[in-house]
Amino acid sequence: MKNRIPLILLLNIAGVALFCSWYLPANHGAWLPVDSAIFHFFNHGVSVSHAYAWLLAIINNRAFDACSLLAMGCLMLSYWLKAPTAGRRQIAIMGLVMLLAAVIINQLAQHLMPVQRASPSLFFSDITRVSDVVNFPTKDASKDSFPGDHGMMLLIFASFMWRYFGRRALGVALIIFVVFAFPRVMIGAHWFSDIAVGSLTAVLIGAPWVLMTPLSDKLIAFFRSLLTQQNIGQIMSPAAAKVINYKGTFWVPFYIFPFFST
């Protein structure tokens, strides 16, 4: 761990510097023109093409958010299927630790970052919102869009995939991140900097202390010893214990949908 402290601190400094590059300059400095250009690029077609407006509405519907959970689950499942019984339990408990870390990092970021701003669809007046064109439930605005918790959760997922499954898993996880985080930017529910600054800052500061120290491994070991079949059987009914421990494998539910519906 001592050997990694300098790298952890370097990543933390990079996160703070990234945030300051956006927070300190008047009107967010160079970030505002970038944010504005990206938003108007995608928003221009809303009033021109009804099909395009429908596309944005669909990929920002809650059902599409559920697809992001399915994509993450499929990636983890691909490694789970290759693992022996003990390895499968390890992967499932790793998912529990990932969920715990994501919730804590997200909550700390939401409370510690001194920022509250409306999404671009509410900030600009000369635009067309998707909800004004398409009668379909979709997320096209937010009164407080910073930091992007949707992107934050996906980046934390990618970090855990890299830590426990390697670069190939990271590559797939980053594709999932782009596919499912950027629709919010395209529709105007988030600024680009909500993710590029807000989400990334939180991950650069929080994730290294979880994944580059023994913390995540110790938490996995703790839950592994706590959530044995014998212990589960003592606190739950036999039927429930059988459901959770299918063929000796602990199944951990991932209750993170609320983060993807904001």
Q: In the CATH hierarchy, what is the class?
A: Mainly Alpha
Question: What radius of gyration results from the CA coordinates?
Answer: 20 Å
Mean pLDDT: 85
- The tally of domains stands at 1
CATH architecture: Up-down Bundle
Q: H/E element string?
A: HHHHHHHHHHHHHEE
What name does the CATH topology carry?
Answer: Vanadium-containing Chloroperoxidase, domain 1
- Give the distance, in angstroms, between the N- and C-terminal Cα atoms: 36 Å
Oligomer: single chain
Low-confidence stretches: 239-262
Q: Label the structural class.
A: mainly alpha
Question: What do you see in this structure?
Answer:
This protein is mainly α and 262 residues long. It has 13 helices and two strands, in the order αααααααααααααββ. Strands 1-2 form a two-stranded antiparallel sheet. Helix 5 crosses helix 10 and helix 8 packs parallel to helix 10. It is globular, with a radius of gyration of 20 Å. The two termini are 36 Å apart. 35% of the residues are buried. The C terminus is likely disordered.
